[in-house]
Amino acid sequence: MTRNKIYKRKQWKLVREEVLKLDHYECVRCNHTFFNKKGDKKLEKAVLVHHIYPANDYPQYMYQIWVNGKRNLVSLCNDCHEELHGRKFNPSEHFINEERWD
């Protein structure tokens, strides 16, 4: 089964919602808080569910929240999920040159 098909199945949608509820829709990694323009502290809700045991490597755990007494599925904000997968863009790492057009 391809990776994208996994996340379109009804079974995944149900377990995903269960995990988000279990974590109160909060990122378990950072509890992603920020301040809005008024200076009020806000919490960005977790929108993704991450496999600790990757679904491609451990298909038997694909829909299991708990594996051997430890969490397999956890709620994350988008930033933490991208960072865990090494996809976070860091402008300083992509520096090309000092050329400027003043």
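The above is record 1. Record 2 follows with the same two-line structure.
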Amino acid sequence: MVKFLLWCILLLLCWPLALVALVLYPIVWLLLLPFRIVGIAVGGVLAAVWALVTLPARVLRGVF
């Protein structure tokens, strides 16, 4: 909603720039999509490594 309101303000102030932003936004989103996917994958791997590192402490905590 905030992005839409900012775009409306930009449309009132400088409509050619707002139209360029409207056209370029999907292209930029598609270009950044692989980086988001890699970020999600790296986050999952780091969470798995953290779970393996803390596993002995969690097992010992459950025993005692």
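Helices lie at 2-13, 15-63.
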